[in-house]
Amino acid sequence: MRIIVQKFGGTSVTTSEKRNMAIDKVIAATERGYSPVVVVSAMGRKGDPYATDTLLSLINGKDCSIEKREADLLMCCGEIISAVVMAEAFAQRGYKARVLTGGNAGIITDDNFGSAGVIDVEPERILSALEQGLIPIVTGFQGITEEGDYTTLGRGGSDTTGALLGKALKAEFVEIYTDVDGIMTADPNIVPDAKIINEISYNEVFQLAEQGAKVVHPRAVEYALAGNIPLIIKNTVTDAPGTVITNSRGCTDNSVTGITSMANKTQVIINFPGDCKNISNDIFERLAQKRISIDLVNVFPGQEIFTVDSTDTSEVEDILKQLCKEYRIINNCSKVSLIGNAMRGMPEMMSKLLRTLEYNNVSVLQTSNSQTAIWCLIEEADNKKALNELHNAFFCAS
Ligand code: ADP
Ligand code: MG
Q1: Which ligand is nearest to the CA of 177?
Q2: Which CATH architecture fits 3-246?
């Protein structure tokens, strides 16, 4: 059997027309000799009746008073509704499907409700459905604990389900269908000039995803890499070839592959008088105890700078009030990332980045770099302008 996994995101299953376009992709795969395993997300985005956020709003979202276990049970409903509606649409076209929950599909997780870790995948029921000539439709984003409780895998979790099943089933490839023609040089909703990337390495796309490009979830990239399964990002409603993610892309290309950004960052600047060296360690220890992750960390004699997610700002401030005399908090920052495969020759890149931002009156609050990325922190209000100008400088200017 030549198994493939085809995952359809929320916007790909919202209307009867789109569901039929998704089904066209599945039927086309069967006609090419493949045995497709379908994974679906909940239908639509926030505001749509059965989308995950809409379901969550029924229980006051993040502020709900019930335990995460119960909230997970509610969130699992979105994918179940979507999968059953897809099964009916398949039946209307003369194809018999078998709907499998995450648990039915053998995705065993721990009990970290809301962002469960996968312990094992036992896909026997998927294989048996395929052997019976049925099209398995697996509800994305969910698993089951060994005790039988429903869990969810965290936001973007349906991508994770797709890649996870691809690995467990040793699929020939995993296709992630969404509402854009593939991975682009930037989010096309922010940068209208963004271009499609035909081929990209796991490492590059992992970094783009980790740094804010929500087109595919970084965990899905990790599982695909672990199983060495090509991951292909495609559009449900076009015939564009999409973006292929593999390791075959060489490491010699030192250009920028993509630009992305993450908002809701807070910059923390701490100044120490000469006799307070230990405070620095104390601060990091206290942050670690509170499980607050820090980023863009620069430690100098007498000064320390780092960023945190804005949701952690008040906890950080509580710690600083106790330990430091002099600190500054800058809210509403955005971290912009330029990602590449092997961006050697960094000085030119850094200088181009700084020149572009300066020319466009964007203040740079901090920068950092590695062999495969350049990061810079700016004010959130400048985000759109910065991304468009950087994209223009790195991808469009001759
Ligand atoms: P789905 O519901 O199919 O999972 P998502 O909304 O999670 O869809 O992902 C698709 C969206 O990702 C696109 O609509 C686009 O706005 C956004 N996106 C962000 N960065 C990129 C990028 N570099 N390339 C393509 N799309 C991107
Ligand atoms: Mg998604």
Answers
A1: 1
A2: 3-Layer(aba) Sandwich (3.40)
